[in-house]
Design a protein that fits this description.
about 325 residues, D-Maltodextrin-Binding Protein, domain 2, 2 domains, five-stranded mixed sheet, 14 helices, about 45% helix
């Protein structure tokens, strides 16, 4: 029995050494997939749902290491997606529609706004009750700005003489100061971005022309992906959309908490009241159809937008709906 006892002791000692060794070794962890979501513009409250997903670890739980990064205009980001130099873009679906019609291989995989919360503003003493009031006014135009890109269709819909609008080209960063110093009469704004900022700064409630009320019902915030990347990495796309939907869910449930989460990531601090108002406007316009995942897309919405773009000259060629969007990555 003694040899057997000795062998048992030896085995126990060996197991103990193995366990001790394992305890000192780092646990194996799967490397997270590093990805960038490129916004089409600078950081603003409209992006809060994505920062909620980041802040609460929803992306991390899906095995994604996400960088939420600023952009410099929809057209630039869409070209980067088409070339494969960027993987995911977040911006206006209407811009993606125009890009697809022009032949760029990109697709909208989630639509978060069926109506872009966009408008045109003026000071109280500058009449602005209908699109016709734009005639004779000085309007700021910037590269990559959605309303500027759609000014032609908007004026045609509303029988406005585009030649009578003085379009003043300027850098986007200069528009607000030029408007507040009355060097321009009207400027376009996102109700979920610039409007709360400018009204807070000026202490004025401006005249507001909501473009959706006058026929320019444009598809808004969306997640856009290059076709080749989506086809080759379907599971990653699904994971990203799943985590983003959770961020939207939480932001819709508690906009104030979402604004506080967003504030942590602002390089330039935003007034808390302004940020909260931006987030509230964003979640109020979020596309969350009953019984469907957040971001679900309906063919009727797409068809209406494409018809509008075609009829007003925003696009020259309408492709099959499947070229513009897909729901296959939504769960």
């Amino acid at each position: 029995m003694r040899p057997q006892l000795q062998r048992l002791r030896t085995m126990i000692a060996a197991v103990g050494l193995l366990l001790a060794s394992a305890a000192t070794q780092p646990a194996f962890t799967q490397t997270a997939e590093k990805l960038t979501v490129r916004f089409t513009w600078k950081l603003k409250g409209e992006y809060a749902p994505l920062f909620v997903a980041l802040d609460k670890g929803y992306y991390k739980s899906e095995g994604l290491d996400i960088d939420l990064a600023e952009g410099s205009g929809a057209q630039t980001v869409l070209k980067l997606l088409a070339s494969g130099n960027e993987k995911f873009g977040y911006g206006p679906a209407v811009s993606a529609a125009q890009a697809v019609s022009q032949g760029l291989p990109v697709k909208v995989v989630a639509l978060y706004q069926t109506k872009a919360p966009m408008g045109v503003i003026s000071f109280p003493d500058v009449p602005l009750k209908s699109p016709k009031d734009l005639e004779g006014k000085r309007l700021a135009i910037s590269v990559g700005e959605t309303f500027g890109d759609m000014l032609g269709p908007f004026t045609r819909i509303n029988h406005v003489d585009l030649a009578k609008i003085q379009q003043i080209q300027m850098d986007a960063s200069a528009r607000t100061s030029q408007f507040l110093t009355r060097k321009i009469d009207v400027m376009s704004v996102y109700l979920s971005n610039e409007l709360p900022q400018i009204e807070k700064r000026a202490g004025v409630t401006f005249n507001l022309l909501k473009v959706a009320d006058f026929g320019l019902n444009l598809l808004g915030a969306s997640m856009i992906v290059g076709n080749a990347y989506a086809e080759q990495n379907p599971q990653i796309v699904k994971k990203l959309l799943r985590a983003t939907a959770l961020g939207y869910r939480d932001a819709m449930a508690d906009p104030k908490a979402a604004a506080k989460a967003m504030a942590k990531y602002m390089r330039v601090p935003e007034d808390p009241d302004v940020l909260e108002r931006q987030v509230e406007t964003t979640v109020a316009s979020t596309n969350a159809p009953p019984g469907k995942p957040i971001g679900w897309q309906e063919s009727a919405d797409w068809q209406a937008n494409l018809t509008l773009l075609k009829e007003t000259g925003g696009i020259s060629d309408v492709k099959p709906l499947s070229a513009y969007y897909t729901n296959e990555y939504l769960q």
